[in-house]
Amino acid sequence: MAERLSPGDTIGILGGGQLGRMLATAAARLGLKTHIFAPETDNPAFDVCAAKTVAAYDNEAALQAFAEAVDVVTYEFENIPAHTAELLAALRPVRPGPAALAASQDRLTEKDFLNDLGIATAPYRSVEDAGALARAVGELGRPSILKTRRLGYDGKGQVTIREGSDLGAIFRGLGGAPSILEGFVPFTKEVSVIAARGLDGAFAAYDVTENVHANHILSVSRAPAKIDADCAAAAMATARKIAEALDYIGILAVELFVTDEPDENGRLVQTIRVNEIAPRVHNSGHWTLDSAICSQFEQHIRAIAGWPLGTTRRHGAAVEMRNLIGDDANAYDAILREPGACLHLYGKAEARPGRKMGHVTRVLDHDG
Ligand code: AMP
């Protein structure tokens, strides 16, 4: 199997959501085909791919046929069962590789990995039972946040522990799943770095992005983040350290908290702690489709194809990306009429509450 793809080759993508759809579109622009593997029948990515397989992630015969039909395998979500990734990796290059999946699927492994690299996170404790939870709350105080180790996203599998919270009921409420308790980080901003590492070890990152969440779901991203230059440089350096430690190939997203902490002279300086990493293209990087020379989707395709990375330079003084969640997408006609608004709809039939239906990007000629 060639390390480097040629135009006309096929990229296999696990997962058929909007991230897969935007990856497939970027691949097509570069003359590469995509084959989507997903268990659901109605996938946004199916509208735009050359081939599809509808099968469960543990269907070994389907995985084998998929691997044989593609030249490289990537994914649009990190909760790929380990056995699925191993089976595919024995047949085709899987990029990013298994180390990236292992480091991002389990919040405890992720935090241990980051701290071993000397990267600051929230303080945390492993919680296996109600007794361990009581001890951990005693050590980290309240408020603190209990999160299941695996399969949490958009605030799911996550509870804030406050004064008076019933710890036993909270632990049972998470199904008694192995969890971690995190000390509350009094952040002033949440930011992310969308970075890329190529097969040749080249590294590139987009401007640090500032993110606002509503109901635990990303609502708005703005770039460049309004943070000090030293803080932005530290965020980029952190992403690079993580990418190099994982011998990473593709787009890596790193979500960080910014806090104001006193230095040795008592002066407040912006300090970063990593919240989580995602081994894939990321919602907070969607602005790059309309405002960067090479988008995060093209960049991921270039990296996993073994091609040179593109430039991450931004157009415009600033850019804002707003998610269209649930019924927000009903405003598409007004957005279409707005000069300069770039509308993206994901082709999902049903606008359920909390469901990401599309996004709109506005490239600004002032700094926001
Ligand atoms: P997560 O699923 O870990 O990304 O958490 C979702 C959101 O909850 C984050 O974007 C923060 O707004 C908030 N959050 C999570 N962990 C912490 C923490 N340790 N301290 C303060 N806020 C947090």
Structure description:
This protein is an alpha+beta fold and 368 residues long. It folds into 3 domains: 10-94, Rossmann fold; 123-183, Dna Ligase, domain 1 (2-Layer Sandwich), CATH 3.30.1490.20; 189-364, D-amino Acid Aminotransferase, Chain A, domain 1 (2-Layer Sandwich). 28% of the residues lie in helices and 29% in strands. It is built from 11 helices and 17 strands. The model has no long low-confidence stretch (mean pLDDT 96). Bound molecules: adenosine monophosphate.
- Give the overall pLDDT as a whole number: 96
Q: Let me know the CATH homologous superfamily of the largest domain.
A: ATP-grasp fold, B domain
Query: In CATH terms, what is the fold-level topology of the largest domain?
Result: D-amino Acid Aminotransferase, Chain A, domain 1
**Series of H and E elements:** EHEEHEHHHEHEEHEEEEEHEEHHEHEE
- Note the total helix count: 11
Strand-pairing-aware structural class: alpha+beta
Shape: globular
CATH architecture assignment of the largest domain: 2-Layer Sandwich
Please give the share of residues in helix: 25-40%
Highest CATH level, the class of the largest domain = Alpha Beta
Bound molecules: adenosine monophosphate
Number of domains: 3
Pick out the low-confidence regions.
none
Largest sheet, in brief, is: 9 strands, antiparallel
C-alpha termini separation: 47 Å
Whole-angstrom Rg: 21 Å
Strand content: 25-35%
